[in-house]
C-alpha cells in the first residue's frame, strides 16, 4: 500500500526483501538524515528561514495528500522530527508508516489503543483513543513550532508553572505579540516577518483543544502560503496539560515520564520497525 503512495513529500519505497530471515525494505536514499538531527543534533546544517519555511510547507503538503488526495485516506499517527527526512536539497519527506491507520470516509473517527510518541500526540487521542486525521494536524503543530523555535518539545524545560510545554510557551508569547522571542536565535534575526508570524499563528491554530476546530491540512497549506486568512487563535494548547500528564504517569505506573530525542538519528532507525524508547503503546 505504501509503495503506491507517490508524492514529493513522502519517502519513496522502492521494494522489499522477504527471504528466509531477511526482512528488508528498500527506500530512496536521503542525504541529510532527519529534521530532528538538523534542528537539535550535530549535523552541522544551518537551516535558514527560507529553508525552514519550505520544510514546514512540505510536511503540510505531504499530510494533506495522505488525508485528502490519496486513493486511500491515511492517518500517520507519529508525525515528529525523526520521521521527517531531508533530501540533498533539504526538501522534507514524511517517513515511517508502521503506526499508520486507514480512515474510512463513512466513519467519523477510529477508536483504537494509543500508539505514538509522548509530546506529539493530540490530547483527545492520547487520553481517549479517539483518532481522526486531526490528530496528525496536532502533531504537525508541535513539529512546526520546533522548526520555528529551534527547541525540542520532548526536551523542553518549562521556565514557569504556566508553560508545561513548548506550545504553552509559544501561546503566551504570541498573546503578548512577542513573536520574535519565539524564533530560533540561530536565525540571527534574519527571517521574513510576515511568514514567521503566519507560521506561528497557523501552528497554534492547529493546536486547538477541539479537533473539529483545527483546520484541515489542505487549509494549513493555503494559510502558510498566504492564500487564505488565518482564523483568530482562541484556544490555549495547555488546557489539557495537567490531565494529560497525569494520564501518562498513571498509565506507566510512575510519577514522571521523560522522553528524549536522540542527539542524532539515522534514516534507517525510523524506516525499519525497531523498538524505540521514544514510542509508547498504552494497552
TrEMBL record:
EC class name: transferase
Recorded catalytic activity of this chain's protein: L-seryl-[protein] + ATP = O-phospho-L-seryl-[protein] + ADP + H(+); L-threonyl-[protein] + ATP = O-phospho-L-threonyl-[protein] + ADP + H(+)
Entry keyword set: ATP-binding, Glycoprotein, Kinase, Membrane, Nucleotide-binding, Phosphoprotein, Receptor, Repeat, Serine/threonine-protein kinase, Signal, Transferase, Transmembrane, Transmembrane helix
Cited Pfam families: PK_Tyr_Ser-Thr
Enzyme Commission numbers on file: 2.7.11.1
Subcellular location: Membrane
Domain Protein kinase: 1-230
Annotated Gene3D superfamilies: Phosphorylase Kinase, domain 1, Transferase(Phosphotransferase) domain 1
Membrane topology: Single-pass type I membrane protein
Gene Ontology MF terms in the entry: ATP binding; protein serine/threonine kinase activity
Cellular-component GO terms for this entry: membrane
InterPro entries, sorted: CR_Ser/Thr_kinase, Kinase-like_dom_sf, Prot_kinase_dom, Ser-Thr/Tyr_kinase_cat_dom, Ser/Thr_kinase_AS
PROSITE patterns in the cross-refs: PROTEIN_KINASE_DOM (PS50011), PROTEIN_KINASE_ST (PS00108)
Transferase keyword on record: yes
Protein's name in the database: non-specific serine/threonine protein kinase
Organism the protein comes from: Brassica cretica (Mustard)
Amino acid at each position: 500500500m505504501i509503495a503506491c503512495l507517490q508524492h514529493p513529500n513522502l519517502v519513496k519505497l522502492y521494494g522489499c526483501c522477504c527471504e528466509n530471515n531477511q526482512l528488508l525494505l528498500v527506500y530512496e536514499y536521503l542525504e541529510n538524515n532527519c529534521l530532528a538531527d538538523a534542528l537539535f543534533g550535530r549535523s552541522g546544517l544551518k537551516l535558514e528561514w527560507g529553508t525552514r519555511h519550505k520544510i514546514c510547507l512540505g510536511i503540510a503538503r505531504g499530510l494533506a495528500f495522505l488525508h485528502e488526495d490519496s486513493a486511500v485516506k491515511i492517518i500517520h499517527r507519529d508525525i515528529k522530527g525523526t520521521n521527517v527526512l531531508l533530501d540533498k536539497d533539504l526538501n522534507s519527506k514524511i517517513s515511517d508508516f508502521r503506526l499508520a491507520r486507514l480512515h474510512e470516509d463513512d466513519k467519523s473517527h477510529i477508536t483504537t489503543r494509543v500508539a505514538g510518541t509522548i509530546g506529539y500526540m493530540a490530547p483527545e487521542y492520547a487520553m481517549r483513543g479517539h483518532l481522526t486525521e486531526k490528530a496528525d494536524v496536532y502533531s504537525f503543530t508541535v513539529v512546526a513550532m520546533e522548526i520555528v523555535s529551534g527547541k525540542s518539545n520532548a526536551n523542553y524545560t518549562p521556565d514557569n508553572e504556566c508553560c508545561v510545554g513548548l506550545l504553552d510557551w509559544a501561546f503566551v508569547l504570541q498573546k503578548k505579540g512577542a513573536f520574535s522571542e519565539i524564533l530560533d536565535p540561530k536565525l540571527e534575526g534574519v527571517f521574513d516577518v510576515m511568514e514567521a508570524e503566519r507560521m506561528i499563528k497557523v501552528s497554534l491554530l492547529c493546536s486547538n483543544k477541539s479537533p473539529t476546530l483545527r483546520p484541515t491540512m489542505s487549509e494549513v497549506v493555503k494559510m502558510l502560503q498566504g492564500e487564505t486568512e488565518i482564523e483568530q487563535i482562541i484556544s490555549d494548547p495547555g488546557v489539557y496539560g495537567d490531565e494529560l500528564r497525569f494520564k501518562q504517569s498513571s498509565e506507566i505506573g510512575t510519577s514522571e515520564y521523560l522522553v528524549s530525542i536522540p542527539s542524532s538519528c539515522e534514516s534507517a532507525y525510523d524506516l525499519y520497525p525497531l523498538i524505540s524508547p521514544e514510542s509508547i503503546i498504552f494497552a
